[in-house]
Design a protein that fits this description.
Helix content: 10-25%
Distance between the termini: 24 Å
Low-confidence stretches: none
Strand order of the largest sheet: 4-5-1-9-10
CATH class: Mainly Beta
CATH architecture: Sandwich
Radius of gyration: 18 Å
Structural class: alpha+beta
């Protein structure tokens, strides 16, 4: 493998190390087939309040009454957010959540934000002893650990 290919792979991982995965969860029963739940917020990762760019939620297959939306957010970023119901074709807003915007600041590891429609949010941080809560996926974690191991090896050599 050429050094350029290695650097290309490494440089693609840097944004993943500087961001965390947040899972937005809501217990909600959607009664119309033409409506979808979504998370919208003040930062680009949540659409910057533009409904055409917000993060669509999907039903949890293990818990059909719960919807989840996944987003990667830069660490230590403060933002506002809320739920919105959209027409399934993103043709417009069916209903905005009737409440003031929620405030949140992303930490150094991901987690789950649970908020019912119109309710305050509860945050469940990822397990600090579980490295997977710091990384997007197992491949990213393995590459990071490999790079860390090589750095330690070079320092101790």
């Amino acid at each position: 493998m050429e050094i350029n290919n290695i650097w290309g792979t490494f440089s693609e991982l840097i944004p993943k190390f500087n961001s965390v995965r947040l899972v937005f969860s809501i217990p909600y029963e959607v009664t119309r087939s033409d409506v979808r739940l979504a998370v919208i917020g003040s930062i680009p990762e949540l659409g910057s309040w533009e409904t055409s760019r917000c993060v669509l939620a999907t039903r949890d297959p293990e818990n059909p009454g719960v919807w989840r939306a996944n987003a990667r957010v830069s660490r230590l970023t403060h933002f506002e957010w809320k739920w919105v119901l959209l027409f399934a074709d993103r043709g417009g807003v069916f209903r905005w959540e009737e409440r003031i915007n929620r405030q949140f600041t992303a930490g150094i590891r991901g987690g789950e934000i649970i908020a019912g429609w119109g309710a305050d949010a509860e945050y469940k941080s990822g397990n600090p002893y579980n490295l997977s809560s710091y990384f997007e996926d197992d491949t990213t974690m393995c590459i990071f650990l490999l790079i860390l191991g090589l750095a330690v090896y070079v320092l101790l050599k």
